[in-house]
Structure prediction request, 417 residues.
Amino acid sequence: MALESAEFRVRQAGEWLGLDDGLIETIIAPRRVLEVSIPFRRDDGTRDHLVGWRVHHNTTRGPAKGGIRFHPGVTRDEVVALAIAMSLKTALMNLPLGGAKGGVAVDPKSLSLRELERMTRRYVSELIPFLGPDKDVPAPDVGTNAQVMAWVLDQYSASVGYIVPGVVTGKPIELGGSLGRESATGRGVVEAAALAAEKIGMSFDGARIAIQGYGQVGAWAARLAHARAAKIVAVADVGGAIANSNGLDISLIDRKLREGAKSVVETGAGEVIGKGIDGSSALFAVDCDIVMPCALGDAVDERIASQIKAKLVVEGANGPLTPKADEVLADRGVIVVPDVYANAGGVTCSYLEQCQNFAHLSWDEDEVNEKVVSLMRSAFFRLHSFSVEQKLPYRLAASVLGLKTIADSHRMRGLHP
Ligand code: GLU
Prediction:
């Protein structure tokens, strides 16, 4: 489904641009797909075995760039779909990068820390010829974090014989990571929401927001939106959804989670409106102004889309809306700010991390945050004016702008040999 949606969106943009079929197919097809088998030792001495992928979707404008996802639902097709989205994202943001994604079909919570390390190192060791600061630069995604990136860095560096900080982004600050990277995706989501709200005459100050997902993206979006005087009226994670029409106490949720609560439903911060992963979709029916799906792909289908009461949907996750859900929302006049723009704050900060690595610099946090926000703002103004001029919804406008940049680069470079 994810791959179908990603290909559909590129084809739709390609047709709008009038690209000849040959070029659309060249761009849709990933440049390289590597499938690896990952044998590793469990703590009890037994041998286990997983499967993983790394996809270089487009490398025409720069090194392949994109996260590594550890999740039991990861498939080859999903990784390709996510890599396609990365190519559009980096192109739309005018970053000198291509698009990539990696993934291992595993629930990282089912592994001990040592097992996770051995598994990550074995996966990375299979990818070595694929990786490098000028070839392919991984980053965190669902189920991975700065610690996992530190192992990626170490495994790669050990293979070449010296430390190569620029081979990975989203790494710990001590190893050349960038200040501001942890919050960058959420910061970009909030900036995107505030800019889009302004365009439809909605005040972000006091706006009621529902956020699905309380991980790296959703939790930061909640904190930063709250700091900008928006009211977070509902949040959800795999354990379920909670709501409070007067606004949830975000610092209470954070504190309870730090103290060991397994889910937002255990924090006592709001009324539990749904339990478990299925119950968590109750969040979408909550009365609010802005919905931010910040969890997994395909979270909103046409049925859920028809329940959304908000005027604005801002995609913090990759691919959270199916194309059918898009249609339902468009018919109902709901504005969608698409993933390839809305969650681009993460890869934008990754790019800034690499700039610092290559120049042996480290910028302070305010400087990084300002640069992320400024790049998000200029991309929004490009996207908004194009969508108004061409009378296109943001999603199609974003795909067209991204695809045009990629297609132009293909044409200018020519076809080898
Ligand atoms: N995984 C993030 C994304 O989907 C970040 C990718 C990166 O920084 O390379 O955009």
About this structure: The pocket of glutamic acid is lined by residues 65-67, 139, 141, 169, 318, 343, 346-347, 350 (CB under 6 Å). Residues 365-390 form the longest helix (26 residues).
